[in-house]
Specification:
The complex is a heterodimer. Chain A is mainly β. Chain A is built from no helices and eleven strands. In chain A, strand 4 and strand 5 (about 45-50) form a beta hairpin. Classes of the chains: A mainly beta, B mainly beta.
Amino acid sequence: NAGVMQNPRHLVRRRGQEARLRCSPMKGHSHVYWYRQLPEEGLKFMVYLQKENIIDESGMPKERFSAEFPKEGPSILRIQQVVRGDSAAYFCASSLATNTEAFFGQGTRLTVV
Amino acid sequence: GQQLNQSPQSMFIQEGEDVSMNCTSSSIFNTWLWYKQDPGEGPVLLIALYKAGELTSNGRLTAQFGITRKDSFLNISASIPSDVGIYFCAGQPLGAGNNRKLIWGLGTSLAVNP
């Protein structure tokens, strides 16, 4: 049973471009969570999704950021018109249910130049 | 926003020594979790605590959920080189529901000298 798969592992974008980060949850998991980690800091919650629904997006910046988890395919975190401050590691986690352990992917390291 | 105070920020110890780190919060948490993160990897759950006063072990690791529900500690006994990494505490605030809106500490970086 493969773990949570995130791709790409590393992403470089110029300011103003779009970044699309993908997360395939563990098999059978329908709950997905996205976190952002700045260097030498802990993770910060961004958004919690279930299939086709956004449950809690209180940690998402109001502009330029969006997330989806379609019925088929991976969850996508999309950042439009990236700025240098978006440079961070973005982690996805998935769980079977809301009260079961969440497993993390290896993260996508976004660098905006 | 809510924050967790995790200490120490970093530790450099000799192989075989015991290690202790802790997290405190100004507000009550109903879940405490301890994770380890290796360079370039995602966090891996070590121990989960769900009840005040709970003491749980996982091999050489022991963690406790403080009685006040505002703190937790993690102990590692007889450290070995592969214990190297960054250890994070994370808590679920009271009233956060069952989602994963965890609050994270800033991490304790552990280095072990063989």
